[in-house]
Amino acid sequence: MRRVSCRDLVGALTLLAAGAELGAALLRPRPRPPRAVPVDLDQYFSADELARGRRFARPQLGIAAAASSVQFAVVAGWAVRPPRALRRLRARPLLGSAAVAAGMVVATTSCSLPFSALARRRALAVGLATQSWRGWVADVCKGTVLEAAFA
Predict the structure, then answer these.
(1) Residue 6 to residue 124: CA distance in whole angstroms
(2) CA–CA distance, 12 with 57 (Å, rounded to integer)
(3) DSSP labels for 92-113?
(4) b or e along 17-29 (b: 16 or more beta carbons within 10 Å of the residue's beta carbon)?
(5) CA of 58: how far to CAs of 51, 52, 67, in Å?
(6) Four-point Cα dihedral 92, 16, 71, 98, nearest 10
(7) Is 8 helix (H, G, I), strand (E, B) or coil?
(8) On the chain, which terminus has fewer CB atoms closer than 10 Å, C or N?
(9) Banded pLDDT at 135 (limits 50, 70, 90)
(10) pLDDT tens digit string along 37-96?
């Protein structure tokens, strides 16, 4: 098994970022959307409601950033040292690629699950989510299975 050099890892991540930017550029809608009409939030919400919204939103962004950081670390870790079970599939590249893609989906979803649960708990506390925990878990599982199948 060949060790992955730092240069190879940086090259792969650069290629990945370039591909993502190219995809975003190609899929961006062509006509410019209409300009948003400026709205005075004080006209629709009280100062208390606006402050409460800010208190909710800021930590949610931090939770999302932490989840993304953990997912990035998992992907980078797999790039540097793939799991042993996946290294055995090298003789069958198509099956190996499918297994790696599905495994990455399951790994990144499961490693960010505590952050998702924390964000959901906060949303439940303020009334932005109403679905039961059982329903939420079922949706996460179904979404992970579909994402892994498409990957």
Answers:
(1) 43
(2) 34
(3) SHHHHHHHHHHHHHHHHHHHTH
(4) eeeeeeeeeeeee
(5) 11, 10, 15
(6) -20
(7) helix
(8) N
(9) very high
(10) 999 999 999 999 999 889 999 999 999 999 999 999 998 988 888 777 776 777 777 787
